[in-house]
Amino acid sequence: MKAALQTYHARMLRVLDHIDRHLDGDLDLDALSRVAAFSKFHFHRQFMAIFGLSVHRYVQLARMKRASQRLAAADAESVTEIAMDAGYDAPDAFARAFRQRLGQSPSSFRKSPDWEPWLVAFGPLDVARSKLMQIIFSQDDVTIRDEEPTPVAVLEHRGDRAMLGTTAERFRAWGKAAGLSAETRSTFMVFRSERCPANPADYAMDLCLETDRPVDPDDPLMKAGVIPGGRCAVLRYPGNTNNLEPAATYLYRQWLPASGEEVRDFPVYCRRRLALIPEVPAHEVVVELFLPLK
C-alpha cells in the first residue's frame, strides 16, 4: 500500500514539475492527465483531492505568480508580452484578473509592488505545493540567537481562520494610514493556537508591525505590544510563504526534544522582512521562525 501511494504521489509530482517547466505551453486537462498517466476524469478528481485546487486553477495561479514577478523585476518587458505569456488573449483581460487577485493594476504593481496582498493571493498555490513538496529540515538549519525586543503595533485575530484574510486586510490598511508600511518594516505573526484547532473558533494569532511610534491607547483596532526577544531557536524557512506549519512542527517535535533546551512562556512567532524586496526577489525572501527559549 505504501509503495503504491509513493508511486501515485510521484506521478503527481511529475505533473507539478511539468507545469513549472512548461508554463508557456499546453497545460490543459488532456495534456496534464497524459503526463500523470491517468485518465482525464480520474486525474481531475485526484488532483483536486490532493492539492485542494482544480488543475485549471493551479495553472492560472502559477502563471499569474510568474507574471507578477516579471512585472516587478523586468522593466524591459511590456505588460502585453507578460499578459500573453500568462495565457491571456488581451491586456485588458489580464489587467482585470490581476487587479481582482492582487488589488493593483499591472502598471501600478510594476511601479510600486504591494507584497503583503501578493503573499495572500498566492497562498493557495503555496499550500497546494507543500502537500507533496515537503522541505526536510535538519539540526544544522536551526541556530540559537539573542534577539533584541521589538516594539510593535498588534492586531489580534481571534476566531475562525477562514476570516484571517479580512483581518490581514485591516492590518495592512492601518499600517498604510499610519505611515508604517510593511514594505519598509518587519512584520511578525505570533501563533497563539494550532493552525487548525479542533474548534475553528479557537484559532488565535497576532499580526504585528514594527514601530518606533506610540500606539494611540484609544485606537479601536490596534494596541501596543512588544516582541520580547531574548534567546531563541531560529529556523530560516526558504521561500516567501505563509504556511509555516512544517517548520513549526519540526522545531517542536524533533529539534526541541533533541536539543535539551526548554521553551519560554511566549509562543512561536515568525518575522518577514519585505524591505529586502526588490534586492531579493519576493519568492526568495527568507522567513524566520522563532522558538523562544529559557
Overview of this structure, please?
The protein has 294 residues and is an alpha+beta fold. Helices cover 44% and strands 17% of the residues. It has helices at residues 2-21, 29-36, 40-51, 55-73, 79-85, 91-102, 106-111, 115-121, 123-130, 164-177, 245-259, and strands at residues 142-147, 150-158, 187-191, 204-210, 223-227, 230-237, 269-272, 287-292. Helix 1 crosses helix 2, helix 2 (29-36) packs across helix 3 (40-51) and helix 4 packs antiparallel against helix 5 (79-85). The longest helix is centred in the first third of the chain and has 20 residues, at 2-21. The termini are far apart.
State the end-to-end distance: 44 Å
Beta strand %: 15-25%
Shape: globular
Give me the count of strands.
8
**Regions with pLDDT < 50 over 5+ consecutive residues?**
275-280
Number of H- or I-type helical stretches: 11
Strand arrangement, major sheet: 1-6-8-7-3-4-2-5
Helix/strand structural class: alpha+beta
What share of the residues lie within helices? 40-55%
Biggest pleated sheet: 8 strands, antiparallel
The topology string of helices and strands comes to HHHHHHHHHEEHEEEEHEE
Mean model confidence by pLDDT: 85
Rounded to an integer in angstroms, the radius of gyration calculated over CA atoms is 21 Å
Entry keywords:
alpha+beta, 17% strand, eight-stranded antiparallel sheet, 294 residues
Set down the secondary structure blueprint.
Blueprint: H1 2-21, H2 29-36, H3 40-51, H4 55-73, H5 79-85, H6 91-102, H7 106-111, H8 115-121, H9 123-130, E1 142-147, E2 150-158, H10 164-177, E3 187-191, E4 204-210, E5 223-227, E6 230-237, H11 245-259, E7 269-272, E8 287-292
Antiparallel strand pairs: 1-6, 2-4, 2-5, 3-4, 3-7, 6-8, 7-8
